[in-house]
Each structure stands twice: as structure tokens, then as C-alpha cells.
Amino acid sequence: MTLLETERVAVSPLRRGITPRRRGRGLAGYFFVAGYAVLLLAFGVFPTGYSFYLALTNDRGQFTGLNQFVKVAQDYRFVPAFTNMLIYLVMWLVTLVVLVVLVAVVLRSRVRPGTSAIFRFLYYIPGALAGVASVLVWLFMLDPDVSPVSWMLKSMGLQTFAAVLSPGNLPLVLMLIAFWTGAGGWMVVMYGALNNIPDEVLEAARMDGAGPWRTAWHIQIPMIRQWIVYMTIMAFATGTQLFVEPQLLQTASLGRVSPTWSPNQLAYVYAFQQGDFNGAAAIAVFLLALGLLAAGLLVARSNLFKLDEK
Asked: How far apart are CA 196 and CA 203, in angstroms?
């Protein structure tokens, strides 16, 4: 028997014992990914491709290049809608990042482990409500006639519901609704990220004389930077899809809020009131490009996917 044949005899039983197990693991992985892949294709890739097709053609299916984009960009409602959304996004992202990280750091350093579970549960409760339910809750809270904080609203000069929903106040109102709905879940995520920081690192900082705030600023926040960037990207993407909240406020205020306050509302008007699905698709592509640009800049500047050097 040659040396090569001896190696085959010695290795083949081992291969017979391992290969089926590895093959089973591989099939299980494909099985779990298949559900997500199907949903991604059905509700992500195919609609996006169809939107590009509509944005580059007219209602007869003829290729028109960038004409649809030029048409919607010249609409007098286009710039105000995107301006409203950008003002809202700045307020929403700054408030979210600052307060979520601050609360998570305080919760991690000041609250006992048993009590922190209660706080995390309370933070998460508003996020369990659907967006529509959250708006209805805030409609009650923002009406000076029935709100439990009507004294505060009236002290600010907001005597009526119409005054609360004036155009200048609307970005703040929508930011409060979004923060109340989505910040709690991110606080739980940031708290979990802070818990992954080794205790030895925090102990070394304390031994070097760093107080709680210096430890948070120089140790904890830099070590969860990637999670903060991830939160910012997801919150930005969610903010660009603003539709339900201003739409319900527009209905509840009997038309005091513009029906094209946000780009998504403008796309809705194009598609279902004007019958112009090509223009609506062009607005959707604008929003997609804006989201991809912001995400790309954040990923590039933060090295979000850079592997830690060993």
C-alpha cells in the first residue's frame, strides 16, 4: 500500500463522521436565512427596482431619463417638504443621541442591577405601541382643553390645539412623539452595549482618578461609538419615512397641518390624489438617495465595519 492510499484510509472515516454534521449546519443556516431573503426580495429589492423603473419612465412606460426628478423638484411643495423633514431630523437625531446615551450611562453607573431591569422595562413600554396609537396619545396630551399638562401649555402661550399645531411648532411636536416612541428601545440597546465593556477597564479608569463623567466621556462612549453610529443611521432612515404622524395630525387638526408637510405625504398626494405614480416614485428615489448618502458618510467617518485589531 502506498503512502497516499494509507492517508486515504486513515482520513476517510474522519471525513465520513464530520461532513454530514457540517453539511447539516450549513443547511440549517440557509434555512434560517431563507425567510429573511424572501421578505427582503419581496418587500425591499423588487419594490426598489420597480420604483427606479417608474421614476425613469412615464405613465405609458416610455423612458424619460431624469424628467420625473426634474418635474417633482420644480414642484412648489417639494422644497418645503424636504426642509420640514430636515429640520425635524436635526432635532430628532440630536435629542435622541444625547439623551439616549446620557440615560444609558447614568443607568449603567448609578442604578443597581436589580432596579435597572425595572427602568429598562419602563423605557421600552412606549415603543411597544404602534405609531398610530402613539399619535392618538399625543393628541390628547397636546390639547390644552383636556391635557394633564394643560397648565404648562397655557403658560407657554399655547391656549388652543390649533396654536400647538402651528407650522413653527410642528417639528418639535413630531420630535417629541418620535422620541417618546423610539428612544426607550435604543436606551435598552445602549445599556446592553455598555454592559459589554469589561469591568477591568472601568476599574483601571477609577484607579487612575477618573470620575464618572470622565469615565463616560473618555472610556464608555468611545467604546460604544459603533453602536451610536448604528443608532444614528437607523434613526435617520426612520425619520426620512415620516408619514403617519403628520398625516394623523393633519386629519385631527381639520386641515391646519399641510397635507404635504413631509416628502412621504407629498409622494402620497402624487400617487393617490393626482394618479402620478411616476412622480411619487421619483420622490421615493430622492429619499433613498438621501438615506444612502447619510449612511455612507457615517460609515466612512466612523469606520463602523472596521474589525478590531488584535
From this structure: 14
The CA–CA distances, whole Å, from 155 to 38, 62, 144, 145 equal 53, 58, 10, 13
Q: Residue 310 is placed in which grid cell?
A: 488584535
Alpha carbon of residue 257 to chain centroid: 24
Q: Round to whole Å and give the CA distance between 289 and 233.
A: 14
Residue-wise pLDDT for 101-110, tens only, equals 998 888 877 7
pTM (predicted TM-score): 0.81
Contact status, residue 257 vs residue 249, Cβ threshold 8 Å: yes
Phi, psi of 65 (to 5 degrees): 65, -125
What the block records as the C-alpha cell of 109 is 453607573
Say if residues 161 and 253 touch (Cβ distance below 8 Å): yes
Q: Let me know if 298 is exposed, middle or buried by CB neighbors in 10 A (0-12, 13-18, 19+).
A: middle
CA 193, distance to chain mean position in Å, is: 17
Q: What is the pLDDT of residue 235?
A: 92
* Cα Rg of the chain (Å, integer): 26
The region, left, alpha or beta by phi > 0 then psi within -120 to 50, assigned to residue 307 is: beta
What letters, b where the CB count within 10 A reaches 16 and e where it falls short, cover 145-163?
eebeebeebeeeebeebee
Q: Hey, what's the cell of 304? A: 463602523
Cell, residue 243: 408619514
The residue type found at 55 is A
Taking only the tens place, the pLDDT of each residue in 136-176 is 777 788 888 888 878 888 888 888 887 888 888 888 888 88
The end-to-end CA distance of the chain, in Å, is 46
Q: Residue 106: how many CB atoms within 10 A of its CB?
A: 13
